[in-house]
Amino acid sequence: MDGALRALAAEDLKSSFGPAVIERTGSLVVARNRLDAEVARTVREGELTQAAERDGKATMASWLRGHHRLSQRESSRLVHAGRTLERLPVLAAAAAAGAVSVEVVTVLAPVVSDVNLARAEAQGVDVAAIDALLTDVAMTRSHADLRQAVGHYLARLDPDGIEPDPTEQRSLTFTKHTDGTVTIHGRLDAVGGEKVQTAVESIQHASRPAGDTRSRARQAGDALVQLADNALASGSLPMLRGHKPHVGVLIDLDDLMDTSSGAGAGAGRTTFGGIISAAKARWLACDGNVTRIVIGPEGQPLDVGQSKRLFPPHLRRAIEVRDRHCVFAGCDAPSYWCDVHHVIHWIDGGDTCLDNGALLCERHHTKVHHGFRIERQPDGRWRTWRPDGTEILIGQPFLISA
């Protein structure tokens, strides 16, 4: 197997045509499914024989995390897949042949939980027949269809049972990557999922400017961040470690002040361990608190100054009354979605005052920090320019000839 993998890795794919690439991909997916099935089967054997104790680990899941650096989610999935394959032989045969993935095995796992097996026995359900039926669905229908079929079976298995505690059906994990981006994995109960989806949809549909080319997935991502922004700005969230929750960034003063192009990449560290560029840190500081901390040569704090709110509450209220919504051309995002932006950045000597402040929603605040420009005219109107110097004009008059 090792030799075959080495040979595959040595193949030159650049000379392959489309059909050959598709065929190769399909073969590799089948091979991966077969390998995953063997890993799950072996992990189950290790669980039964307490093999992890040999290396001082209590469980196979902790061994997988510690010795092979798998995530908690992935290690748990392999453990549960091994248990499921042991109890569903038809599914196990399909997995061994590469016809189904370990993800499919995970979907069928609730079918053979101790509780559901007891219910099936009490009602005279032939679990072997269910194994064959659901495996056929897994091999011939879409993943969504399989989830629906499994859900239908479980609902019929206990139609009048005790309604499950929704909090036991919820999970949410955040995986932080080396570039600071975060992947969210989660599962919500039916009602909780509806609540979150409704909240995201409300913001998503309230912020659809003309000419918006974002995909629906991007719109939903922006809406979720806006939902968090609104909650943080409201001041009504529970205290976190004795303080109101806020996004924190630690950055060296030289990186923060150096506005030259490309300077300070990966220079700031967030509260939860993410790494962001100095440009992103300057953007966050535009409408935030700034605290001076003097660090000694061995990394210990020597002095901490008073936190300074760049735009204090009374000044923000005045700017909200004046601007009413995001001032970027064509945007009407409400004031409570907006940051107060320094038109001339405070790092460049711009004053924190009414004349130098402007309301910008998150999306357009980012745009202005990446080349777009806004300017307030003597008559109070705001104008917006693209990075190439052309102005964004809204509602231009046109001539109708008779």
Automatic annotation (TrEMBL):
Segments forming domain HNH nuclease: 314-366
GO function terms (MF aspect): endonuclease activity; nucleic acid binding; zinc ion binding
CDD domains: HNHc
Record family assignment: Belongs to the Rv1128c/1148c/1588c/1702c/1945/3466 family.
Pfam families: DUF222, HNH
Protein name: HNH nuclease domain-containing protein
